[in-house]
Specification:
- The chain has helices at about 5-10, 15-35, 60-85, 95-115, 115-120, 125-150.
- Helix content is about 65%, strand content about 0%.
- The relative contact order is 0.16.
- It has about 160 residues and is mainly α.
- It has one domain.
- α2 (about 15-35) crosses α3 and α4 crosses α6 (about 125-150).
Length: about 160
Amino acid sequence: MNSNLLKTGKTEPFSFAIYIGFFAGLFGSIIRFIAHWFRFTQFDNSFLIYDWFVNLGRSSIVAVLLGSISFIIFSIISSVIYMLLLRTKAGLLWGLLYGVIWWTILFIVSPLLISWPTTDIVLHLDSQVFELCFMLVWGLFIGFSIAFEFTDEASHEPIYAK
C-alpha cells in the first residue's frame, strides 16, 4: 500500500492514475493477445505502433512485446487524462462513454486522418464488435476505478466513525 496514503489518508491522484493505467494496459494487452489468437479481432497488440514497426512482422515476439508496452503507455496516458478531466464524476456511464470516445478516435477518426492499420484492413463485423466491447470494458475499468477512489466518501472515513 502507498505509504503516503497511510500517513495522510488521501490518495495522490497522479500516482493512482498511473497505477490504474498500468494495470488496464497490462490486462488489456493480455486480453487483446488472447482475442487475436482466437481470431476475435484482426488487430493484435501492435496495432498502435504498426506503422512504425512494419518490418518486424505483426506476429513476431518483438512486435507483440512492443505492442503490449505501447498499449500500457497508452492506457497510462489515458487514465491520467481521465483523472484530470472526470475524476469527480461518479457512476459507470462516464467510464463507458470514455471507452466509446477512445474507440471512436482509434477506429473511426484516426483512419480518416492518418495512415493507420485500419486503413489497410477491411474490418469484419466480429472485429468491430470486439473492439467496441473491449474499449467499453477498458474505459469502464479506468473510469470506475478512478471515480470510485475520488468520489467514495465512506472509504476516507476513520474505521471507528459511524
